[in-house]
Amino acid sequence: MDVSVRTLLEEQFDKPLARAFAKFIARLHEHGLVHHDLNFSNVLYHQDEDGYVISVIDINRMTMMSPARLSLRTCKDDFVRWTDRKDLFEFVIREYAEARGLDIERVLALVSAMKMKHDKAWKRRKRFTGQLKKWVGIKG
């Protein structure tokens, strides 16, 4: 039975699972697939005799394009949403870059900058919606 990767990655930082997750993302991108909503609620795993097997759900936003046209910026959504844990994030990005044969430090710098920009916008959006809820009297 497949279960969410959240506990093993977010709380326990299981490095073999993090490596499998990074390689899974790399394989998606090598085939021209971008999930666009890659968060730990949408990533499942199970173990078999070869190790961890990763799968995704909620694929309604997934897009496909020529792998040659796929850039790191095009894949941004698959990098920025799944964790705020910096050590885990950097480990997965390094493993991803290695799996794709890319310059690890360059990929880490670019993807980290994209994540910082995403997180800043997300926090701004959450503050705004919190204020909006107060103005209209919505609780929660």
List keywords for this structure.
Transferase(Phosphotransferase), domain 1; 13% strand; 53% helix; 140 residues; alpha+beta; three-stranded antiparallel β-sheet; two-stranded antiparallel ribbon; 5 strands; single chain; 5 helices
Please describe what this structure looks like.
This protein has one domain (about 5-135): Orthogonal Bundle (Transferase(Phosphotransferase), domain 1), CATH 1.10.510.10. It is globular and about 55 Å long. Helix 2 (about 15-30) packs across helix 4 (about 85-100). The strands form two sheets. It has a three-stranded antiparallel beta sheet, with helices on one face. Strands 2-5 form a two-stranded antiparallel sheet. The mean pLDDT is about 90. The chain is an alpha+beta fold and about 140 residues long. The chain starts with a strand and ends with a helix. The chain has helices at about 5-10, 15-30, 75-80, 85-100, 105-135; strands spanning about 5, 35, 45-50, 50-55, 65. It contains five helices and five strands, in the order βααββββααα.
